[in-house]
Amino acid sequence: MKFFLDTANVEEIKRIAKLGLVDGVTTNPSLVAKEGRDFKEVVQEICGIVSGPVSAEVIGTKADDMLKEAFEIAEWAPNVVIKLPMTEDGLFATHALAEKGIKTNVTLVFSAAQGLMAAKAGATFISPFVGRLDDIGTEGMKLVQDLNIILTNYGFTTEIIAASIRNIGHVEQAALAGAHIATIPGSLLPSLWKHPLTDIGIEKFLSDWSKMQK
Ligand code: E4P
Description:
Elements: E1 2-6, H1 10-17, E2 24-26, H2 29-35, H3 39-49, E3 54-57, H4 63-74, E4 80-85, H5 88-99, E5 104-109, H6 112-121, E6 125-128, H7 130-135, H8 140-153, E7 159-162, H9 168-176, E8 181-184, H10 190-193, H11 196-213
Parallel strand pairs: 1-2, 1-8, 2-3, 3-4, 4-5, 5-6, 6-7, 7-8
Helix pairs in contact: 1-3, 4-5, 6-8
The protein binds erythose-4-phosphate.
Residues 6, 26, 28, 107, 127, 129, 131-132, 163-164, 183 line the site of erythose-4-phosphate.
GO molecular function: aldehyde-lyase activity; transaldolase activity
Main location: cytoplasm
Pathway: Carbohydrate degradation; pentose phosphate pathway; D-glyceraldehyde 3-phosphate and beta-D-fructose 6-phosphate from D-ribose 5-phosphate and D-xylulose 5-phosphate (non-oxidative stage): step 2/3
C-alpha cells in the first residue's frame, strides 16, 4: 500500500519524506488555509519535495470554473493532480481532464455508487472519506472494501485513496481492505511506527547491557 501525507505543511512533509514513507501528498482547502500561505507557492514547494502525486483542490463549484482552475494548476508541476468534488460538475470536469491526460482525484466520496461514477468518468484516484462516515455512525471502511470489489470486478485502473484517516486501525483496515493508498495526517504517522513494548524492550536491553559493563 502506498502512503500519501494528508497535509499542506512543508516541514512535516520534508521530515517524513526522509524516512522513505511518502509516496504522495493530498491537500485540501482547509489544510492549505491552516498554513496561511499562497496556494500556488505551497503546492509547487510540495511538488518539489515529493516526486509522487500531489493533489491540489479546485475551489469552483461549476464545471467551467473547475476546468479553468484545473488547467492553471496542471501547469504548476508535472506531478500535480487535480482534486475535484464528487458532484455532477465535478464528474464533467473529471471526464474532460481525463480526455486530456490530466490526472484527477475525486474527493468527498461517501458511497459506492459515487465511487463507481467517478471511476467511470475517468478519475485517476477516488477518495472515500472513512473517518467522516464513522462520525455519522456508519462503518466507513465498508465503503473502501466495497469500492475495491467494484473496481476489481470491472478492471478499472482508478486507485482508491482511503481518506479521512483518524487512527492506526483505519490504516491497518485500509490495507486489509485493499486500498491502493492511505492518505495520513502527519500528526498520526508516528503512531504507526511507535509501540510501548518497543520502548520498554529498548530500555531493558540497554539496562542489561550497562550491567554487563560494570
Ligand atoms: C483527503 O484527501 C482529505 O484531505 C482528508 O483526508 C480529509 O480528512 P478529514 O475528514 O480528517 O478532514
